[in-house]
Amino acid sequence: MGAGSAxxxxxxxxxxxxxxxxxxxxxxxxxxxxxxxxxTGTIGSGGTIxxxxxxxxxGVGGTGGLGGPxxxxxxxxxxxASTSGDPPPxxxxxxxxxxxxxxxxxxxxxxxxxxGFSFEKTHLTDGFFSADHAALVAMFKLLGPGMVRIGADxxxxxVWTPSATFVKPGTTSSKIGSAEVDALADFLxxxxxxxxxxxxxxxxxxxxxxxxxxxxxxxxxxxxLAAIEIGNELNLYGLSNVQSVWHSxxxxxxxxxxxxxxxxxxxxxxxNFATPFIKGEASQIGLVTHHYYRGTAGTSAATLAxxxxxxxxxxxxxxxxxxxxxxNNIVGGYRWGEMNSYSSHGQAGVSDALASALWxxxxxxxxxxxxxxxxxxxxxxxxxxxxxxxTNAASCDRPFRYSPILEIDSRVTAAAPLYYGMLLVxxxxxxxxxxxxxxxxxxxxxxxxxxPSDGSIRLVLVNTDPNSSVNASVDIGAAVSxxxxxxxxxxxxxxxTGVTLAEATVTPQGGWAPKPPYALTHAGNVITVPLPPAxxxxxxxx
Length: 542
Fold this sequence. Notes:
By secondary structure, the protein is an alpha/beta fold. It has helices at about 135-140, 180-190, 205-220, 240-255, 270-280, 305-310, 310-325, 355-370, 415-430, and strands at about 15-20, 45, 45-50, 95-110, 115-120, 145-150, 160, 175, 195-200, 225-230, 260-270, 285-295, 335-345, 375-380, 405-410, 410-415, 430-440, 445-450, 455-465, 470-475, 485-490, 500, 520, 520-525, 525-530, 535-540. Strands 4, 17, 18, 19, 20, 21, 22, 23, 24, 25 and 26 form an eleven-stranded mixed beta sheet that branches. It has an eight-stranded parallel barrel with strand order 5-6-9-10-11-12-13-14, surrounded by six helices.
């Protein structure tokens, strides 16, 4: 949430203004306030809450409220009830759905800053990560403080060259120098984010060259450094002694920097490689990382249906990873250090469509239920990860279709649909996830519940069916005094543009002006939540 404090209710007909990031609320009496036209509700910095309907009644800001752009490192949050009109209409076949929240069965905690990014290390060389890249700073801050991972395949070609200079935007270099690290440090301070920073473990690299690089990196990044990663996807190196090689790097790093947190092993999907590795290197690992892709772009498996259907690998490997982290006393837990829909930069019409946002929400909240502490969606731009782009992003042989943030010539151009899924999850905040069941006939319908520390409850419902609506009866297990909803939706499941959250787009500059949430009907413990085809909804209740 934003750093501001909650504003006090205004007197009838009054207007209050909250500080940036604050949550304000105001309400007037029915009638008597502007007559039939209704009165304007509270104005918070960055947005308007509650527009009165006929009869003059004004919506009351409830849990979460509608904040402004947030304080330092803060995020805009949407919540509370308003009388902004009826929720989106249900179209197509309407199916009755049920959701049951069991408050007495808490699952794992949804960690703060759960939705993160992953980028190729060569992206440091083109000026992308700099405090004056205003749009990128804004995109990061909109999600609130989180974790970005710098490494991936291009760490295997990176060479520490202290005197290296930035290259032309849209091009990259394998030479990483002090100027690039300085810019990253400034960017992290500007956003309030932390970084997992990877060092090379291939070619001419040695444990000593890694220590030499980190001798500059660690003090420069300071508190903004979350962990050091060694290499990338070790199980693909083809080395019979890959664990012993990794161990030599980790030992050298800890010898030079005893308090450094080392992340690993960062294996690609192979849990049979990862869990023995974690056990053997438990004394060296402070954060378990693992990688996931649903399949490979350009293959027969890279379909929309495969992406949206539950992958049993996600559940089984999540359980194995959390158990491995716990039994080996890895204090940082585990996170999906690099993941996305389809590898080789994504499948056109799937990885870059509304479907990816809905899949991303399901992936994040499913893995959070098992104890994952965060995910890093991979992305990038021109001339990275073996990509060849002679002129611009459009001429790349393998464009980064799955990237949550789109870019050309090392500058942000748009928020992709996947970013909206990350933004929705960021609105949940942190809290205890509760056991939740959901059903709606044959519709692919999921539900998740989070209980923040303030005693309220927030839910996310996801409908990936392109033709069927769900009219859901949601039993939250306690009497409901108020409920509201904001929707993530778009023109179609395959739409690559026109996606909105809270009826607003994220601008290329990183701005977002969410509309007031919709009021939901409720009786007793049950909230009625309409969910159109190909959409998700964030429900706030108290």
